[in-house]
Amino acid sequence: MNVREPSIDMNRLFDRLRSLGAIGRGEDGKLVRLSASDNDKAGRDCLVSWLNEAGLEVAVDRIGNVFGIWRDESNEKEMPLLLGSHIDTVIDAGMYDGCFGVLSGLEVIETLKAAGIRPQRPVVVAAFTNEEGVRYAPDMMGSLVFAGGMPVEEALAVIGHDGSVLGDELRRIGYAGTLDPGFLKPHAYLELHIEQGPVLEREGFTLGAVENLQGISWQRITIDGIANHAGTTPMSMRRDAGHAAARVVTFLRDRAMASNSPTVATVGCMQFEPNAINVIPSRAMFTVDLRDPNEQRLRAEEAALATFLEGLAKAEGVRVSVERLARFEPVIFDGDLVAHIEEAASRRGLACRRMTSGAGHDAQMIARISPAAMIFVPSVGGISHNPAEFTPEADLVAGATVLLDVVMDLVRSSGAQA
Ligand code: GLV
Ligand code: MN
Ligand code: MN
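== Zn-dependent hydrolase ==
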């Protein structure tokens, strides 16, 4: 077979990014592909058509993770090199988060195939189910189940915020596969992703070699007070669930702002009942997202919130209940893989720095079962989970090229023939 120096087809990669980014846009122009929804099905169908066109074996496991497998008789007994990310989105999303990693993984495989490379081990691209966790908690669910961190039956039984059951929805959209999650045991895992933060752009780096990823704590808090008339109830006689919730929001922000640590705290969802202008809220339901790269500090933040909620219940005459939605400890990625990424970037003359990921990623879950690391490219203005999410094409190419180089290093170092 003829062999030539591989180089990614950036036009194919950009075309696919744009095509996938157009799937799941409503009439209002907003991109919403929540996990296991009709829009997610359309995105998955599109991805699967590309995996088929690339001549990959398509596999779907019971939690709906989609795999494009490149293997032959000569290497099928070896553990695969796994590349992956996700294609589900948040509400009113940008088009790069997750999709860039999946499509780059596919691009790398197609590039290697076209160049006549014969890797000694299979190379697989994965799109993991429900990374975002917007419809079903916890986030990173598909990779968590794949890594054995949650039983598949438990995950399939999760009820979403819209009352749907994940397993039913996966069946409905045709992505309840039959393979047991974990049917592939990765030799190593690489994930290319946009940074989703401001560090690389601010400091003038083209790439990040991600060394670690912060811990994530998600809780849903329900505060029950008493509904009453907004005009007649004196301020001192209120049991106002809405006001109590507002105090939690400001407590979290004030505490994070006053600390010298990198702790971040977010209340992203809030609902009042009965939700009427002239009725004191009887119930407030909201979420808390706490993150910190240090497990001890994250625990201390959780404990401080719990203590605050106890005092709040007494002071406001309300009842507070807390449900844990997700809890992941910080993760340290594989030192050799991180060094590999740095070396590959340096060979290409690309400015690369080691960094911590603020966002959660599937790599965090796969790190439980295999060496894992991530490559970041800059996010302009540090904006993500927002339609304005943007990474210049030159940076996308740089990221995909370094992914290609690292993959070649890994398949060759295991004896691959070029
Ligand atoms: C995933 O995007 C997360 O970090 O919440
Ligand atoms: Mn993502
Ligand atoms: Mn995301």
